[in-house]
Amino acid sequence: MKNVLKAAAIALALAGATVMTVSTASAADISVTFNPGTVAYGYNDGYWNQSHQWNTWQQPEHRETYRNSKGSEYHDWAHTRDADQGWHGK
């Protein structure tokens, strides 16, 4: 009986390790993309999205992507400079 319990414990440990490996591999396959079309107004410290929610730039590349997008409204100053915090009432 003692050997059966040891074998069951080892099998359970191996199964748990397999599940952890699969979960980690799945998380590594997830990618996050940036859509400049969701930005209403961009500033050097972040942006307002179309739903009037403030966001900071997750990566410097996102700011540059938005700055170079056709029709972007980017301001190279902090949004807090303006009395309306940079939201212009689209």
Please characterize this protein's 3D structure.
With 90 residues, this protein is an alpha+beta fold. It has helices at residues 2-28, 60-67, and strands at residues 39-43, 46-49, 54-55, 74-75. It is rod-shaped and about 75 Å long. Strands 3-2-1-4 form a 4-stranded mixed beta sheet, with helices on one face. Residues 17-22 have low confidence and may be disordered. The protein folds into 2 domains: 1-30; 37-81, no CATH class.
Produce the secondary structure layout.
Elements: H1 2-28, E1 39-43, E2 46-49, E3 54-55, H2 60-67, E4 74-75
Parallel strand pairs: 1-4
Antiparallel strand pairs: 1-2, 2-3
Key terms:
alpha+beta; 2 helices; rod-shaped; 14% strand; 90 residues
Question: What's this entry about, in short?
Answer:
The protein has 90 residues and is of the alpha+beta class. It is built from two helices and four strands; from the N terminus they run αβββαβ. It folds into two domains: 1-30; 37-81, no CATH class.
